Known about the structure:
Elements: E1 8-10, E2 17-19, H1 36-48
Antiparallel strand pairs: 1-2
Amino acid sequence: MRKTDLPSKLCTVCGRPFLWRRRWKRCWDEVRYCSERCRRSTRTRQAKGQGHPQRP
Length: 56
């Protein structure tokens, strides 16, 4: 399978597109973040009462 044929999503934190990965085979519908860093930053932003970051 070519990379261009893989499904993609937009990260809910940074808004960047990311592609399907083999380790997400069983839980692709539940994946919302492009990276561990974005997943962690969501929790810290919610704790501080901030919203989503502004993209430059």
